């Protein structure tokens, strides 16, 4: 189950990025169960929870939220503004 943090539920200007993580700090490492950012920047936009890459309705720039993905999801990665996964490698 994916639990959304309230800050991500707020409406705002879709597709806006932030320089908040562009300070040059080293990428953080995390133990099992902790969150890790793949890039050092924030992305704000509309989020869509998707269970399957087929018929997802994902629009360009939206944040793709999925429990897990596989190579079949690749077309969605190309249009998503950001990705949030519960499980990933």
Stretches with pLDDT under 50, minimum 5 residues: 1-12, 17-28
What does the largest sheet look like? 3 strands, parallel
* Helix/strand order, N-terminal first: HEEEEHE
Q: Work out the helicity level.
A: 10-25%
* Count of runs of 4 or more consecutive helical residues: 2
* Count of distinct strands: 5
Strand order of the largest sheet: 3-4-5
Average pLDDT reading? 71
Number of domains: 1
**Overall geometric form:** globular
Radius of gyration: 13 Å
The fraction of residues in strands falls at 15-25%
Structural class: alpha/beta
Please give a handful of descriptors for the protein shown.
Phosphohistidine_dom_sf, 2 helices, two-stranded antiparallel ribbon, alpha/beta, globular, 89 residues, 3-stranded parallel beta sheet, transferase activity, transferring phosphorus-containing groups
Characterization of the model:
The chain is α/β, with parallel strands linked by helices and 89 residues long. β4, α2 and β5 (82-85) form a beta-alpha-beta unit. It contains two helices and five strands, in the order αββββαβ. The strands form two sheets. It has a three-stranded parallel sheet, with no helix packed on it. The protein has a two-stranded antiparallel sheet with strand order 1-2. The chain is globular and about 30 Å long. It has one domain. The model is unreliable at 1-12 and 17-28 (pLDDT under 50). It has helices at residues 6-9, 74-79; strands spanning 16-18, 42-44, 47-49, 63-66, 82-85. 11% of the residues lie in helices and 19% in strands.
